[in-house]
Design a protein that fits this description.
13 helices, 2 domains, 313 residues, 3-stranded antiparallel β-sheet, Rossmann fold, alpha/beta
Length: 313
């Protein structure tokens, strides 16, 4: 997989050898080191965008080196140059997964930015229930769920509407590119600080129980959410159709072309009358004309597909 994603590393090797064998003709050491570091980081940024879609800023080299430091030490890697070569040449899946885990520690909390959840409870859920009264089925996808708080927040809301939803088939799928984040979500174990962020005392006592020094989501609520690893650059066709998709703050750092591709794929899975939730600061505008805005700034509707014209012969 890695060989297919990343080009050969010969240019890096040539640069290293040229610097090493021409000390008298080379530029001052500081200039050479800066040029080498800039070249290596540019190569790493291209690899990372191809792998995850995220467009890392050119000024973020120190941040990247700090986050990847533990990964490099664990694999006895001296610097970002050597890490780049290992990723390109060896197809080291374990190394790539650990790098993704280190680089994608997303900020999240229960009922984060509460307004979208209130919009779901007050307007979107009743509307979808009225429209799905015959099939009595709802499917929701949290497409960048991180450690699971968003999915569990929705599960709590659906549980609170259990009387109205009696007899319905309710599915919540939470996915993330980080395997470590998904494992945390599946376990449903959170620190005291994490449950204090967004959770009311009522929700905490009703849906969680103490487990040593932490709090764990009760089994009946965990059973209502399925978690799995998924890369937004991949085709989601096998996941099926959804009535609601949440992809909040996930494509903010994506390059325009990658963002457009993700949004188009999400539109392809969304029901005709379905809803897409983005982050408060995210828009689709020209990036994805397949969505139209709603009264809530972070909620979008899928634009109706044009009906094919019948030609009379």
């Amino acid at each position: 997989m890695v060989d297919a994603l990343f080009a050969s590393s010969e240019a890096l090797l040539v640069m290293r050898n040229t610097i090493a064998r021409s000390p008298r003709e080379a530029a001052p050491v500081s200039s050479v080191d800066d040029a080498r570091a800039s070249y290596v980081f540019a190569r790493f940024r291209r690899q990372w965008a191809a792998l995850t879609g995220a467009d890392i800023g050119a000024d973020k080299r120190r941040v990247v080196e700090r986050r990847l430091g533990p990964v490099m030490r664990a694999h006895d890697v001296s610097d970002l140059f050597e890490l780049t070569l290992l990723i390109e040449r060896n197809g080291n899946e374990a190394l790539i997964e650990e790098a993704i885990d280190a680089m994608t520690a997303g900020e999240t909390s229960f009922f984060r930015d509460r307004a979208p959840f209130e919009a779901f409870r007050a307007r979107i859920l009743p509307e979808l229930m009225a429209a799905r009264g015959r099939e009595r089925r709802l499917r929701i996808w949290c497409a960048a769920v991180s450690t699971g708080q968003e999915a569990y927040s929705l599960a709590m809301m659906l549980d609170e509407a259990a009387r109205e939803l009696r007899g319905w088939s309710l599915e919540i799928l939470g996915t993330d590119i980080s395997g470590a984040a998904i494992e945390t979500a599946r376990k449903g174990i959170y620190t005291h600080l994490e449950v204090q962020q967004g959770l009311s005392t009522t929700h905490l006592l009703r849906y969680f129980h103490r487990e040593e020094e932490n709090w764990r989501v009760n089994e009946h609520l965990r059973a209502r959410v399925a978690f799995g690893r998924f890369n937004l650059l991949s085709s989601p066709a096998e996941l099926g159709a959804f009535d609601v998709i949440l992809c909040r703050n996930a494509v903010t750092s994506f390059a325009p072309e990658a963002k457009r591709g993700v949004l188009e794929r999400l539109a392809g899975l969304l029901a005709e009358d379905g809803y897409l939730f983005l982050g408060d600061a995210e828009t689709v505008d020209e990036a994805a004309p397949c969505f139209i805005p709603t009264a809530h700034p972070s909620v979008w509707r899928r634009r109706a597909r044009p009906r094919p014209r019948l030609s009379l012969v």
